[in-house]
Protein backbone atom coordinates (compact mmCIF):
# COMPACT_ATOMS: atom_id res chain seq x y z
CA UNK A 1 0.00 0.00 0.00
CA UNK A 2 1.39 3.37 -1.02
CA UNK A 3 0.98 6.16 1.54
CA UNK A 4 1.18 9.84 0.68
CA UNK A 5 3.11 12.28 2.87
CA UNK A 6 -0.09 14.33 3.26
CA UNK A 7 -3.00 12.03 4.03
CA UNK A 8 -5.46 12.76 6.84
CA UNK A 9 -3.79 10.42 9.31
CA UNK A 10 -0.44 12.15 9.49
CA UNK A 11 -1.35 15.76 10.24
CA UNK A 12 1.48 17.78 11.85
CA UNK A 13 2.17 16.93 15.50
CA UNK A 14 4.00 20.15 16.52
CA UNK A 15 2.28 23.58 16.68
CA UNK A 16 5.33 25.57 15.45
CA UNK A 17 9.12 25.55 14.95
CA UNK A 18 9.43 21.98 13.75
CA UNK A 19 8.04 19.34 11.42
CA UNK A 20 6.82 16.00 12.77
CA UNK A 21 4.54 13.57 10.94
CA UNK A 22 3.12 10.28 12.18
CA UNK A 23 2.36 7.34 9.86
CA UNK A 24 0.47 5.01 12.20
CA UNK A 25 0.75 1.93 9.96
CA UNK A 26 3.80 2.04 7.66
CA UNK A 27 4.08 -1.74 8.14
CA UNK A 28 1.18 -4.18 8.50
CA UNK A 29 0.74 -5.93 11.85
CA UNK A 30 1.93 -9.17 10.24
CA UNK A 31 5.10 -7.58 8.82
CA UNK A 32 5.71 -5.77 12.10
CA UNK A 33 5.42 -8.91 14.22
CA UNK A 34 7.89 -10.73 11.97
CA UNK A 35 10.37 -7.84 12.06
CA UNK A 36 10.00 -7.61 15.84
CA UNK A 37 10.80 -11.31 16.35
CA UNK A 38 13.73 -11.21 13.91
CA UNK A 39 15.27 -8.03 15.31
CA UNK A 40 14.99 -9.30 18.88
CA UNK A 41 17.16 -12.28 17.88
CA UNK A 42 19.45 -10.86 15.18
CA UNK A 43 20.49 -7.51 16.60
CA UNK A 44 23.67 -7.23 18.63
CA UNK A 45 21.92 -5.67 21.67
CA UNK A 46 24.05 -4.15 24.45
CA UNK A 47 23.37 -2.24 27.62
CA UNK A 48 25.80 0.69 27.46
CA UNK A 49 26.99 2.99 30.22
CA UNK A 50 26.50 6.74 29.87
CA UNK A 51 27.96 9.62 31.85
CA UNK A 52 25.44 11.97 33.48
CA UNK A 53 26.88 14.89 35.45
CA UNK A 54 30.23 13.08 35.66
CA UNK A 55 28.71 9.88 37.02
CA UNK A 56 28.66 6.64 35.03
CA UNK A 57 25.30 4.82 34.97
CA UNK A 58 23.83 2.10 32.77
CA UNK A 59 21.27 3.19 30.19
CA UNK A 60 17.73 2.04 31.08
CA UNK A 61 17.33 0.19 27.75
CA UNK A 62 19.37 -1.85 25.26
CA UNK A 63 20.88 -0.20 22.20
CA UNK A 64 22.68 -1.07 18.97
CA UNK A 65 24.13 0.93 16.12
CA UNK A 66 23.99 -0.14 12.47
CA UNK A 67 25.19 1.69 9.39
CA UNK A 68 27.40 2.12 6.39
CA UNK A 69 31.10 1.42 7.02
CA UNK A 70 33.27 4.21 8.43
CA UNK A 71 30.43 6.09 10.10
CA UNK A 72 31.02 6.58 13.82
CA UNK A 73 28.66 8.39 16.14
CA UNK A 74 28.94 9.99 19.57
CA UNK A 75 25.94 9.59 21.82
CA UNK A 76 25.81 10.91 25.40
CA UNK A 77 29.55 10.50 25.88
CA UNK A 78 30.07 7.17 24.06
CA UNK A 79 31.48 6.68 20.55
CA UNK A 80 29.72 3.91 18.69
CA UNK A 81 31.05 1.94 15.72
CA UNK A 82 28.33 0.60 13.43
CA UNK A 83 27.42 -3.03 12.88
CA UNK A 84 26.77 -4.01 9.22
CA UNK A 85 23.16 -3.74 7.98
CA UNK A 86 21.16 -6.96 8.38
CA UNK A 87 18.81 -7.99 5.53
CA UNK A 88 15.78 -7.01 7.64
CA UNK A 89 17.18 -3.61 8.58
CA UNK A 90 17.99 -2.92 4.94
CA UNK A 91 14.41 -3.78 3.86
CA UNK A 92 12.96 -1.57 6.60
CA UNK A 93 15.34 1.23 5.58
CA UNK A 94 14.17 0.99 1.95
CA UNK A 95 10.49 1.27 2.96
CA UNK A 96 11.22 4.29 5.15
CA UNK A 97 13.23 5.93 2.37
CA UNK A 98 10.38 5.48 -0.12
CA UNK A 99 8.04 7.43 2.19
CA UNK A 100 10.44 10.08 3.49
CA UNK A 101 12.41 10.83 0.32
CA UNK A 102 15.65 10.75 2.35
CA UNK A 103 18.52 8.23 2.06
CA UNK A 104 19.79 7.11 5.46
CA UNK A 105 23.31 5.84 6.20
CA UNK A 106 22.89 4.76 9.81
CA UNK A 107 20.41 3.67 12.45
CA UNK A 108 20.32 3.69 16.24
CA UNK A 109 18.22 0.87 17.67
CA UNK A 110 16.60 0.89 21.11
CA UNK A 111 15.01 -2.02 22.93
CA UNK A 112 12.70 -1.16 25.85
CA UNK A 113 12.37 -4.48 27.67
CA UNK A 114 9.37 -3.37 29.76
CA UNK A 115 7.77 -0.22 31.20
CA UNK A 116 10.80 0.45 33.39
CA UNK A 117 12.99 1.06 30.34
CA UNK A 118 12.95 4.60 28.99
CA UNK A 119 14.86 7.44 27.36
CA UNK A 120 15.03 10.82 29.11
CA UNK A 121 14.49 14.31 27.65
CA UNK A 122 16.99 15.04 24.91
CA UNK A 123 17.35 16.44 21.40
CA UNK A 124 18.91 14.53 18.51
CA UNK A 125 21.23 17.43 17.84
CA UNK A 126 24.68 15.82 17.73
CA UNK A 127 26.86 17.72 15.27
CA UNK A 128 27.37 14.59 13.10
CA UNK A 129 23.68 14.85 12.12
CA UNK A 130 23.98 18.26 10.46
CA UNK A 131 21.89 21.39 10.99
CA UNK A 132 18.29 20.29 10.34
CA UNK A 133 18.41 16.49 10.50
CA UNK A 134 15.73 14.19 9.04
CA UNK A 135 15.16 11.41 11.56
CA UNK A 136 12.83 8.51 10.75
CA UNK A 137 11.72 6.54 13.78
CA UNK A 138 10.13 3.09 13.30
CA UNK A 139 8.46 1.18 16.15
CA UNK A 140 7.69 -2.53 16.60
CA UNK A 141 6.12 -4.33 19.56
CA UNK A 142 4.44 -2.69 22.55
CA UNK A 143 2.96 0.80 22.13
CA UNK A 144 4.84 3.52 24.04
CA UNK A 145 4.08 7.21 24.53
CA UNK A 146 6.52 9.57 22.82
CA UNK A 147 6.49 13.08 24.31
CA UNK A 148 7.73 16.42 22.97
CA UNK A 149 8.33 19.57 25.00
CA UNK A 150 9.40 22.96 23.77
CA UNK A 151 13.04 23.67 24.64
CA UNK A 152 12.41 27.28 25.73
CA UNK A 153 8.93 26.96 27.25
CA UNK A 154 8.86 23.52 28.81
CA UNK A 155 5.12 23.86 29.56
CA UNK A 156 4.32 23.44 25.84
CA UNK A 157 4.05 19.69 25.24
CA UNK A 158 2.69 17.25 22.69
CA UNK A 159 2.54 13.48 22.75
CA UNK A 160 1.95 10.63 20.30
CA UNK A 161 1.40 6.91 20.76
CA UNK A 162 3.98 4.92 18.79
CA UNK A 163 2.35 1.61 17.96
CA UNK A 164 3.51 -1.57 16.21
CA UNK A 165 4.49 -0.69 12.62
CA UNK A 166 4.36 3.10 12.96
CA UNK A 167 6.76 5.70 11.53
CA UNK A 168 7.44 9.07 13.16
CA UNK A 169 9.24 11.47 10.82
CA UNK A 170 11.06 14.44 12.40
CA UNK A 171 12.63 17.14 10.21
CA UNK A 172 13.17 20.86 9.71
CA UNK A 173 13.96 22.81 12.89
CA UNK A 174 12.48 20.17 15.23
CA UNK A 175 15.76 19.28 16.96
CA UNK A 176 16.55 22.94 17.67
CA UNK A 177 13.29 23.77 19.42
CA UNK A 178 11.86 20.52 20.83
CA UNK A 179 13.12 17.85 23.23
CA UNK A 180 11.63 14.36 23.26
CA UNK A 181 11.46 11.37 25.60
CA UNK A 182 9.92 7.94 26.17
CA UNK A 183 8.84 8.04 29.85
CA UNK A 184 8.71 4.99 32.07
CA UNK A 185 5.24 3.52 32.61
CA UNK A 186 3.82 1.46 35.48
CA UNK A 187 1.50 -0.35 33.02
CA UNK A 188 2.41 -4.00 32.53
CA UNK A 189 3.66 -4.07 28.96
CA UNK A 190 5.87 -6.14 26.72
CA UNK A 191 8.99 -5.03 24.96
CA UNK A 192 9.29 -2.50 22.19
CA UNK A 193 11.93 -2.08 19.51
CA UNK A 194 12.61 1.33 17.99
CA UNK A 195 14.83 2.11 15.01
CA UNK A 196 15.82 5.72 14.36
CA UNK A 197 17.28 6.09 10.88
CA UNK A 198 19.69 8.98 10.60
CA UNK A 199 22.04 10.65 8.13
CA UNK A 200 25.57 11.18 9.39
CA UNK A 201 27.20 13.89 7.31
O1 LIG B 1 12.34 5.03 21.25
C1 LIG B 1 12.01 6.08 20.71
O2 LIG B 1 10.96 6.21 20.10
C2 LIG B 1 12.92 7.29 20.79
C3 LIG B 1 14.38 6.98 20.77
C4 LIG B 1 15.19 8.23 20.73
O3 LIG B 1 14.74 9.31 20.99
C5 LIG B 1 16.60 8.16 20.32
O4 LIG B 1 17.14 7.07 20.15
O5 LIG B 1 17.21 9.23 20.15
FE1 LIG C 1 16.01 10.88 20.26
From TrEMBL:
Cofactor entry: Fe(2+)
One GO BP: DNA alkylation repair
Keyword DNA damage among record annotations: yes
Entry annotated with the keyword Transmembrane: no
SUPFAM superfamilies for the chain: Clavaminate synthase-like (SSF51197)
Domain named Fe2OG dioxygenase: residues: 103-201
GO molecular function: catalytic activity, acting on DNA; demethylase activity; dioxygenase activity; hydrolase activity; metal ion binding; oxidoreductase activity, acting on paired donors, with incorporation or reduction of molecular oxygen
Keyword entries, A-Z: Dioxygenase, DNA damage, DNA repair, Iron, Magnesium, Metal-binding, Oxidoreductase
Xref: Pfam families: 2OG-FeII_Oxy_2
Protein name: Alkylated DNA repair protein
Organism annotation: Solitalea canadensis (strain ATCC 29591 / DSM 3403 / JCM 21819 / LMG 8368 / NBRC 15130 / NCIMB 12057 / USAM 9D) (Flexibacter canadensis)
